[in-house]
Amino acid sequence: PVFANAGCYIERELRLAGAGKGPLKIGTPNRAIITYCDTPNAFGALGKNEAFLKIKPMMLQSTSGFSFISGKSIYSETSGSRVEARLYVIKISRFNDKPRQAELQRMKPMLASYGFHAENIIVAEHAHGIESPSEIAIFYFDQPELQKKLNKDNTVMRAIENFNKTYTDGFVYLGGAAM
Q1: pLDDT in tens, 115-161
Q2: Which entry of 22, 50, 112, 116 is 20 to 30 Å from 79 by CA?
Q3: Residue 138's closest CA among 119, 156, 161?
Q4: Contact criterion met (CB below 8 Å) for 164 and 136
Q5: CA angle, 147 then 148 then 154, to 5°
Q6: Separation of alpha carbons 84 and 96, rounded Å
Q7: Average per-residue pLDDT in the chain?
Q8: How many whole angstroms separate alpha carbon 45 and alpha carbon 121?
Q9: 13-28 pLDDT, tens digit each
Q10: SS (H, E, C) the chain
Q11: CA-to-CA distance for 177 and 53, rounded, in angstroms?
């Protein structure tokens, strides 16, 4: 209720599998919680809430390597697939200053043919416990088998590699499933 009283809710909770893949080093997280708050002052309100302040030390002690990134959602999409059947991929990116929108639009149909969707793209504004990225993207495949097929498509994999080389200064991919 403390979180809800601040105008926040858990949008997606993911169990992550293994270390991230990519040059950006963030350790080996085992869980990601994506939250949504309906007011920009929500975290400030939580910081002043007596009930939250009582449980905050316990929350921080019960985790190791706690990292936090906040920002504004700029894009989201959905499909008819069941959340429990999806394979999620979180990509944390630090972009350079080269314009990338045209390349993203060119790649979108290639990725969509593999049941690949951007559930949420968040422009990072603040970070704690991690070097501040530019963006956090929560992607998913409608079915895990579709990622395996995409990984075998050399044309698409080369396009992804070229995108990362051209437009990012650092990135990491984390894979997981909804809890």
Answers
A1: 999 999 999 998 877 888 999 999 999 999 999 999 999 999 999 99
A2: 22
A3: 119
A4: no
A5: 95
A6: 35
A7: 90
A8: 24
A9: 999 998 889 998 888 8
A10: CHHHHCCEEEEEEEEECCCCECCCCCCCCCEEEEEEECCCCHHHHHHHCHHHHHHHHHHHHCCCCCCEEEEEEEECCCCCCCHHHCEEEEEEEEECCCCCHHHHHHHHHHHHCCCEEEEEEEEEEEEECCCCCCEEEEEEECCHHHHHHHHCCHHHHHHHHHHHHHHEEEEEEEEEEEC
A11: 30
Question: What are 24-29's contacts with CB under 8 Å, separation 24+?
Answer: 24/92, 24/93, 24/94, 24/131, 24/133, 24/170, 24/171, 24/172, 25/172, 26/67, 26/92, 26/130, 26/172, 27/65, 29/65, 29/67, 29/174
Global pTM value: 0.89
Specify whether the CB–CB gap between 91 and 136 falls below 8 A: yes
Distance CA 98, CA 112 (A): 24
Q: CB atoms < 10 A from the CB of 159, how many?
A: 16
Contact 119, 138 (CB under 8 A): yes
